[in-house]
Amino acid sequence: MTKAKLKYKRVLLKLSGELFGEDKGKGIDFDRFKQISSQITRIWKKTGIELVIVVGGGNIFRGRERAVINGMALQDALERSGAPTRMMTAFEIRTVAEPYIRRRAIRHIEKGRIVIFTAGTGNPFFTTDSGAALRAIETYCDVILKATNVDGVYSEDPKKNPNAKLYKNITYQEAIEKNLNVMDATAFALCQKHKLPIIVFNIEKLNDVDKLLQGKLFGTFVS
Q1: What CA–CA distance (Å, rounded) separates 205 from 218?
Q2: Dihedral in degrees, nearest 10, Cα atoms 130, 118, 39, 146
Q3: Among the CATH numbers 3.30.70.420, 3.40.50.300, 3.90.650.10, 3.40.1160.10, which is that of 3-222?
């Protein structure tokens, strides 16, 4: 596959901290980091996409600093799998990562590095979903891919109600009005304003993301 065949060429991948947790999504499972990172690297090499990643910290406990821990672990795992990376944070920790500077981030992307954004927006009261939407807009991404523990956006929590409806396609406004909690309203509103599509899919289908990049839909398409 060449880049010319891709529908989406610059991609933001949103990973919640719970995806890297151990029992019930908490703690740190380093084997999980290795598994997910190897899959990301394989797809990145195969497709030639420009890739940025936003990672949350909910597997440890909520807070912007905790996402940095996951970012460091993800960066290490990606580099061990053969991908060049840069990690950037929304607040200054110079001994760990570069501070987020938009022009510098875009330059890293253009040089073929996977850029990991941590610490959300750097401000309280904003989730990493809002941070992901903001960073995707700032770095001119074509799509947000949000990996979750379910198959897409449901009318209710499918783990609590097995009869919950899975939406294949939904608008930003419907997602906001129905209070669908897969992303917060601020993130949906930002994407709506900038016409940035979101695809929500199950992390277990990460190996098939190259199909999404070609426009073959699974999960939920929010537009």
Answers
A1: 9
A2: -10
A3: 3.40.1160.10
For residue 71 the two structure tokens come to 């970012």
| Cα of 37 vs its chain's centroid, Å | 13
Please name which of 209, 180, 199, 220 lies closest in space to residue 1, comparing C-alpha atoms: 209
Tell me what pLDDT residue 64 has.
Answer: 47
DSSP state of 135: H
Contacts of 31 (CB under 8 A, 6+ apart): none
Pick the closest to residue 191 from 217, 171, 218 (CA basis): 171
Between 123 and 77, whose confidence is greater?
Answer: 77
Q: Please measure the distance between the N-terminal and C-terminal CA atoms of the chain and give it in whole angstroms.
A: 26
Using CA atoms, how far apart are residues 114 and 126, in angstroms rounded to an integer? 24
